[in-house]
Amino acid sequence: MSKLYGVGVGPGDPELMTIKAVNAVRNSVTVCFVGKSEASSVAFNIAKHAIPEIEEKKKVCIDFPMTKDKDILEEAHSKITALIKDLLKDGDVALLTLGDPGVYATYSYIAERLKKENIQIITIAGITSFSAAAAGLSIPLTLADEELHIIPSSYSFEEAFNLEGTLVFMKSGRSYEKLAKYIKENKSDRNVYMVENCGMKDEKIFIGAKNLPESSGYFTLIIVRG
Fold it and tell me: Alpha-carbon distance 166 to 8, whole Å?
């Protein structure tokens, strides 16, 4: 029976792809990835640099709608599940996921649907953007008994500052300007680090609340310690 591999490709640097991820792609007949084209897919281009022979595979772009509308998402997940089921008829499928498949990835919704239809799912962990960012900054995410909190800031973030330990704000997107303004005005005493496009050629790093830029791109995360 054909298998679906949920492959975490890491945050941006092709060298951060694991051996297991590389082998899963090499052993799959079809490679699926988010984007309207190969050129626009971040996950595909990460994998392409790590596995040049991926170009010889059957490649399928998948359009994941960027919305919070439950009806639109339900319809999209249903269509994607049906598409992957059809692709599995030809052999194993690797579905590339930026970062780790278990962290805010649409992959999980698709995997759950396919599990209910007794399709074998193999999920391969990827290095997260916040792990890679902390390593690049040479800072710890946690020490001793410190807590670590991952917050999807595109939904809400104010209450997160009541938590103890290290805060990681992901999925900033449209809320970035509001989040940055809040940190500058209320949390300037904290150790603040921002990384945009972690591991990519155009990576940018900002240290200190006062140095947060006025605006930022989609692939932005903020680490707040102290």
Answer: 24
How high is the pLDDT of residue 146? 95
Residue 220 near residue 177, CB atoms below 8 Å: no
CB 35 within 8 A of CB 222: no
> Within the chain, how many helices (H) and strands (E) appear?
6, 10
Q: pLDDT digit string (tens) for 48-87?
A: 999 999 999 999 999 888 788 889 989 999 999 999 999 9
Distances in Å between the alpha carbon of 144 and those of 56, 82, 116, 141, 149? 48, 46, 40, 11, 15
Distance in angstroms (rounded) separating the CA atoms of residues 23 and 28? 9
The amino acid that residue 181 corresponds to is K
d(CA 190, CA 225): 6
Residue 154 has pLDDT above 80, yes or no: no
pLDDT band (50, 70, 90) for residue 172: confident
Please, which residues bridge with residue 183 across strands?
A: none
Cα dihedral 113, 102, 68, 202 in deg (nearest 10): -130
Report how far residue 220's alpha carbon sits from residue 212's, in angstroms, rounded to the nearest whole number.
11
**Nearest one of 122, 156, 132 to 221, comparing CA atoms:** 132
Predicted confidence at residue 46, as pLDDT, reads: 97
Q: How much is the pTM? A: 0.91
- Residue 40 contacts residue 110 (beta carbons within 8 Å): no
What letter represents residue 180's amino acid? A
